[in-house]
């Protein structure tokens, strides 16, 4: 707020607690749908002279742009985005435009710098976000808006993953993905709950920390697997299957939080989780029927209308992805689950590869923006002041997660090499953990120093993910030298045979297409 000469005018404004007409102040108060709260209105002072202003770098990015702001008693900042006007006028949020420019340009610079250095560009995106974010030079004014736009990165990443979905390949790993994924979450919750109880803490806090730590980053891991072209490898399929299961389990964990926080009973929690499971099964059943009936006809229609250009087909693909994701979110599931399901639906048709080619540029842009927004959550000063504790916490988390995940995978008959691959790939804490942590904080389940510790550990673990992927080949090479890795198990052999059959089938289809084209 230093870039303004603040004029604080005490006034009463409306904080809406339920759905109401945004233009009807008196009606909302009369119907008891809102409460009155004293806030401060901050407006830019146009009378500042050049002599009174000292140049600071962040002033260039955080200009007032004539838009007043409101600050409540808890120092929450609200930006007025919908001015009351007699006639409809075009309104621009120039702050958001400026913030998006800063985020995209900084992510580009970070990616280019790390590409020149021969390092993963994802690290450049994360560090660029930390530099321009609130914990760095504070060039970003509207964090909520930027993070909301950046969520499209996760949506399109999972949509692209769904387009590459192979039921044949995942059928081999369904046991370790579903049962093993649930077992990992359960083991983390039991281990942390028991540890916290023995240390004299609340068991509910320990159970939450276990659920929190069990989450891995679908977006970040998927990006690395795609870069290394290992999504179709056995360890890649096991990793992807487990990550999808975790995404599905997020809704159940949200239903569990009120129980752990003491705001609802156990019966209500079980009822809520059962309702979510029934909703999930019904939602997937409806999508399965649509994918066999309406969707092929719709896609062929878009192709026929897009004979001159792919613009309409590209727009229709994006709209379909967002529509299914939105429906999933409205049903109490997640946007990520819906976007993945949309991709899987198109993957059952003959246009999966064509759709992927249309979506890839959009996916890459928003994925870079998403990773930069994750970097913005990293508070550089906090990390520096508590670097010893955070580094120790991250190392502990990586070691424990690698051991537990690798042990579970090993228990399903996979060899040491695949188990270590999967364990190290999923050793970070995922971006969904930020959402879980925020919800737990609102329920007063996690507060104070524990909240900051978990936040810092999550952010730092995401930053160290590129290093982990760089270490995997070295660990595998060391295992070969020490003869830790045995020959392929029956799981690996069966998976390779399935791959050979599917590849030969694809080649046969290509040859038939060529022969028909020649004739």
Quick summary of this structure?
By secondary structure, the protein is mainly alpha-helical. Helices cover 69% and strands 4% of the residues. The protein has 21 helices and four strands.
Helix/strand/pairing category: mainly alpha
Which term fits the overall shape?
Answer: globular
Gap between N and C termini, in Å? 73 Å
Q: Using DSSP, what is the number of strands?
A: 4
Low-confidence stretches: 1-21, 49-53, 503-519
Sheet with most strands: 4 strands, antiparallel
The assigned CATH architecture of the domain at 144-481 is Up-down Bundle
**Average pLDDT number:** 76
Number of helices: 21
Beta-strand content estimate: under 5%
Q: At the first level of CATH, what is the class of the domain at 144-481? A: Mainly Alpha
Helix content: 55-70%
CATH topology of the domain at 144-481: Na+/H+ antiporter like fold
Q: What's the multimeric state? A: single chain
Element pattern in H and E: EHEHEEHHHHHHHHHHHHHHHHHHH
Main-sheet strand order equals 1-2-3-4
Alpha carbon gyration radius: 25 Å
């Amino acid at each position: 707020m230093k870039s303004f000469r603040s004029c604080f005018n005490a006034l009463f404004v409306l904080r809406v607690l339920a759905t109401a007409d945004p233009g009807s102040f008196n009606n909302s108060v009369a119907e008891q749908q809102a409460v009155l709260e004293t806030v401060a209105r901050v407006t830019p002072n146009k009378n500042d002279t050049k002599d009174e202003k000292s140049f600071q770098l962040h002033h260039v990015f955080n200009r007032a742009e004539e838009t007043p702001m409101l600050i409540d008693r808890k120092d929450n900042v609200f930006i007025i985005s919908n001015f009351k006007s007699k006639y409809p006028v075009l309104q621009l949020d120039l702050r958001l435009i400026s913030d998006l420019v800063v985020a995209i340009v900084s992510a580009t610079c970070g990616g280019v710098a790390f590409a020149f250095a021969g390092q993963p560009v994802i690290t450049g995106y994360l560090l660029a976000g930390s530099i321009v974010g609130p914990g760095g030079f504070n060039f970003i004014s509207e964090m909520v808006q930027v993070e909301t736009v950046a969520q499209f990165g996760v949506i399109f990443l999972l949509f692209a993953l769904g387009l590459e979905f192979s039921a044949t390949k995942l059928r081999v790993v369904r046991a370790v993905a579903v049962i093993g994924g649930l077992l990992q979450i359960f083991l983390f919750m039991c281990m942390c709950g028991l540890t916290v109880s023995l240390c004299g803490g609340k068991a509910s806090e320990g159970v939450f920390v276990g659920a929190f730590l069990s989450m891995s980053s679908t977006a970040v891991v998927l990006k690395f697997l795609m870069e290394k072209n290992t999504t179709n490898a056995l360890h890649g399929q096991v990793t992807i299957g487990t990550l999808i299961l975790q995404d599905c389990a997020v809704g159940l964990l949200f239903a569990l939080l009120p129980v752990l926080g003491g705001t609802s009973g156990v019966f209500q929690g079980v009822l809520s989780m059962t309702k979510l499971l029934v909703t999930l099964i019904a939602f997937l059943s409806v999508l399965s029927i649509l994918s066999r009936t309406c969707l092929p006809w719709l896609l062929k229609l878009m192709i026929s209308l897009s004979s001159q250009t792919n613009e309409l087909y590209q727009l229709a693909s994006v709209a379909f992805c967002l529509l299914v994701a939105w429906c999933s979110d409205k049903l109490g599931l997640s946007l990520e689950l819906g976007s993945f399901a949309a991709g899987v639906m198109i993957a059952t048709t003959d246009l999966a590869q064509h759709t992927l080619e249309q979506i890839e540029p959009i996916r890459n842009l928003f994925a870079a923006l998403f990773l930069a927004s994750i970097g913005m959550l990293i508070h550089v000063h906090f990390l520096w002041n508590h670097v010893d504790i955070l580094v120790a916490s991250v190392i502990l988390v990586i070691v424990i997660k690698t051991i537990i995940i690798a042990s579970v995978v090993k228990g399903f008959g996979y060899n040491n090499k695949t188990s270590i691959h999967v364990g190290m790939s999923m050793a970070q804490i995922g971006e969904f953990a930020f959402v879980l942590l925020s919800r737990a904080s609102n329920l007063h389940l996690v507060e104070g120093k524990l909240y900051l510790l978990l936040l810092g550990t999550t952010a730092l673990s995401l930053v160290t993910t590129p290093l982990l992927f760089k270490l995997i080949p070295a660990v595998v090479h060391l295992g070969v030298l020490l003869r830790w890795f045995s020959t392929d198990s029956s799981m690996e052999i069966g998976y390779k045979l399935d791959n050979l059959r599917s590849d030969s089938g694809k080649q046969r289809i290509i040859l038939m297409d060529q022969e028909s084209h020649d004739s």
